[in-house]
Amino acid sequence: MRLLLVEDDAALGKVLVRGLADQGYAVDHATSVASATEAHSVNSYDLIVLDLGLPDGDGVDLCRSFRDAGDQTPVLMLTARDGLSDKVAGLDAGADDYLAKPFAYPELAARVRALLRRPPGMNSPVLEVGDVSLDPAAHTVFRGAIMVPLTAREFSLLDYLMRHSGMVCRREDLLEHVWDANYDGLSNVVDVHIANLRRKLTMPGLDDPIETVRGVGYRMGSTS
Hints:
This protein is an alpha/beta fold. The chain is built from 8 helices and 14 strands. It is 39% helix and 23% strand. Helix 6 crosses helix 8 (189-201).
């Protein structure tokens, strides 16, 4: 899952990026309305964590501009202001949740998980493709009745594949959503992680749940 963090406080931003990355999220960090607008224009995000007070504008206005453009990406708004009017303004602008500073990181992480497990059009918070089930809140994966331990990155990769069940996920899409804009490592990193996922999910008597679409990418689930 790829997140956009819009936070001008360098120290807080560093802590949040590190914490979210440790949980397997790919995080792009913007520090102003201008840089957030630019990142948003060229990338697709699964969630936006948006500070209300920014050096060149207001997070409320930025959130409203996203909504006016038809973007329904979940938005978690952060602010040092705790007044009711500020909270109402943020929610009226289209924010999905609101967290006042100072906050404990585990609370932010829980709110991020809650927003991500309820995407538009998804009735159940638990993702299911065939006999593979993934619970974003509990951070667990099962193949049938057997729990499958995954690394944070493997979990995020499987999450993306399952949210796009029946669709071919290009390697470029997987790299963009599971890693981040600063990734500059091995070019075959997606294939390496897919191989690890297959090894863990493929059990005696059970088929490989991940299909390779030669020259394009990978797919889970039926195309019908």
